[in-house]
Amino acid sequence: MSSFWFFEGLRKGRKTEKFPRAPPESPPLRPSRMKGEGFHECPTDAIAEGEWVQEKCIFCRRCEEQFKPTGEQDIFDVKRTEKILMRSIHLYRLDSGSCGACNTEFSAIFDPQYDAHRLRIFETNTPRHADAIVIMGIATDGMKEALDRAYEAMPEPKLVIALGACAVSGGVLGDAPLDRDMYDVEIAGCPPSPYTILEAIDRARGDSHD
Amino acid sequence: MKHYKFGEARGRYIGPAGDIQVYSEGLVRGESGFRKERHDHEHDGQLWFDYGPSTGGMLESVGISFLTPGELISETLVDPSFKKRTLVVKGKSVEDALLTVERINGFHAASHSIAYCSAVEDALGINTDAGTRSSRIVMLEMERVRSHLEVIKRLCEPAGFGVPHSQIGYIRERMSRLISSVSGHRYFFSANSIGSAAIDSKNLLGETEAIGAEFARVYDGLLQSKIFLNRLQNNGRNEDGQHLIGPAARACNRRIDARLDSPSMDYSGAEFEVPVAEEGDSFARFAVRSGEIMQSLSIIRNIAEGPEEEGREHDTGGSGEGAARVESPQGDLFYYVNVRDGILEDIRMLSPSMVNISSFEASMKGNIFTDFHFNWESYGIWISEAGVEFA
Q1: CATH numbers and ranges of domains, chain B
Q2: Is-contact B27 B334, C-beta < 8 A?
Q3: N or C: which end of chain A has fewer CB within 10 A?
Q4: CATH code for the structural domain at A76-204
Q5: B53 touching chain A per CB within 8 A
Q6: Segment B220-270, tens digit of pLDDT
Q7: Which residues of A touch B220 (CB under 8 A)?
Q8: Which of residues 132-191 of B touch A (CB under 8 A)?
Q9: In the predicted model, is pLDDT for residue B34 greater than 90?
Q10: Nearest-CA residue of chain A relative to B387?
């Protein structure tokens, strides 16, 4: 029995995609970049002056006569990079007030199809060992102190990553936990797909994928 | 309300939905004394050890307090209020409120949206067509498969079982991709609406066969892994499961399931068994969930090629009271709504996670801290649906 799981692992073979060095093999339509034009009464004001606003969109499909999902997964904004983190980056997740979907999509980047470890992306259990804090969910009174203390406990240099529409803009549920000026990386989507999360984190350390 | 009446404490007791006590065949107004308080233990050599709210190894933010003299845990309290969200739904149209309701627990969005839509349809007298009803059963069962896979994956993690952890993660992601192709979203968001639901069952049969075969092989391997089994057996034992619902109750040999006794969803054509176990421990909960994965895949195959949804338009501008109950992956999920002219005036929700927290706390007595993660994950409690209030 001691060697059972070793051989089971070998038997399955390689399941990891080449993304982000190659196109995603199974990109979801929602969430993905929306393209179109026109006006629509959007419940989260994600259509402004006829343009699609990615960080506010919850992909509720109400505007899909005017705006169509393209399957393109690059719906994130990297405002600051830390090239020193190219060698490895350790992430501390903080659930400020999420529905749970962002939590499981974040976990999925470590599943075999994505295998974030091969890109030297790791999760850590304490903010003291973290290079970046990944915030998910809306602002809640009870998690404010935990968020502030986790941020203070992180060593420099540190990145602040907002994961999902709730963390970036409040989405349809409430207010964002931090002012957007605090965010170095904003990942759109409700929830963002593992492809989007993986590429955004990789880009946050200056990887151009060339 | 077609299926429930106030003032009747009939059938099995399920739990409280705010100030409404929910029974399988009736509703009673009144609060229940539900939560325990932390008490002072400074003078008997024990201390309260706080874990969380934000800490490694936990999927969500939650505060756990253990009363311990140093090794054995004498008492455990779970505080789901740290990430408590106040969700504004009252005063919104029933359609707009749905966008919020399906984000109460995003991982179980199909269960929440179907229970809510069914309650609204009950209030407004909307009759759904056969295609909508079978599509919703497929959604619920797909969600159950993925949710149970997540629980079992997370049981492998603290055991250090990297290979089955990764293999179940692979199967779970395969299921997420199937859900995306069937419903248009990886979490079923906006796949349901008031009066209708539609799925694309093109890849369903082949993929569910493959997922079932892959999971069966991993499950057989886990059953032969003594180190894994030792961490689960006798861990978090519940004696009778009287206050539990869902798979945790069925692991205590209680054959209760909303699919058997709720009039809100018709499973009569689904042909399935309800797995039970006798031990009431973490292993029993693991075994019941594994059995349910295979049963749910079978249900999907039985009804996937049913009638198509007719795409009828429904008037949602009416008024009335409605209630509905579905079997979510963690147990009975109940919604009560009061609608006036298409606007949501009042809403109550009973979540299985909130109901089962007290039994989890009791089951930790006599454990040591290293047992905690196995026991916690085996219950499958979601804080997102336990720590929520409506405004």
Answers
A1: 13-390 (1.10.645.10)
A2: no
A3: C
A4: 3.40.50.12280
A5: yes
A6: 999 999 999 999 999 999 988 889 999 999 999 999 999 999 999 999 888
A7: none
A8: 150, 161-164, 166-167, 169-170, 172-173, 176-177, 180, 184-187, 189-190
A9: no
A10: A97
Q: What's the average model confidence in pLDDT over B89-117?
A: 98
Helix (H, G, I), strand (E, B) or coil at A191: coil
For helices B109-124 and B130-156, what crossing angle results, to 10°? 150
Q: Could you tell me the two tokens for B173?
A: 């992601």
Does A59 contact chain B (CB < 8 Å)? yes
Which chain B positions have a beta carbon within 8 Å of A108's beta carbon? 169, 172-173, 176
Place of tokens 């990109």: A27
Tokens of A110: 């470590």
Which position has the token pair 């002219």? B341
Measured between CB atoms, does B19 come within 8 Å of chain A?
A: no
Residues of chain A with CATH 3.40.50.12280: 76-204
Here the ipTM equals 0.96
CB-based contacts of A196: which residues, under 8 Å, 6+ apart? Answer: A31, A73, A74, A75, A76, A187, A188, A189
Cα B298-B166-B252 angle, rounded to 5 deg: 50
